[in-house]
Amino acid sequence: MNNQPRKQLGNNIKQLRTSLGLSQEQLAEKAGLHRTYVGAVERGERNVSFR
């Protein structure tokens, strides 16, 4: 399985989050997600779906 798209998305999210000066916890709260999920997405460990 190719994890590259997941890792790239995670890197993009992390770069945007840090450029906005947000912690993972702050981003998670704003997005209605759990902090550990945000961290796993940023590391490319979780699949992401959009609604």
Q: Which of globular, elongated, flat, extended, rod-shaped describes the shape?
A: globular
How many domains? Answer: 1
- What string, H for helix and E for strand, traces the elements in order? HHH
Give start-end ranges of low-pLDDT stretches.
Answer: none
Question: Could you explain how this protein is built, in words?
Answer:
The structure is a single chain. The protein is mainly α and 51 residues long. The chain has a single domain (4-42), classed as lambda repressor-like DNA-binding domains (434 Repressor (Amino-terminal Domain), Orthogonal Bundle), CATH 1.10.260. The chain has 3 helices and no strands. The model has no long low-confidence stretch (mean pLDDT 95).
Give the arrangement of secondary structure elements.
Layout: H1 4-19, H2 24-31, H3 35-42
Briefly summarize what is shown.
The protein is mostly helical and 51 residues long. It has helices at 4-19, 24-31, 35-42.
Which key terms come to mind for this protein?
51 residues, 434 Repressor (Amino-terminal Domain)
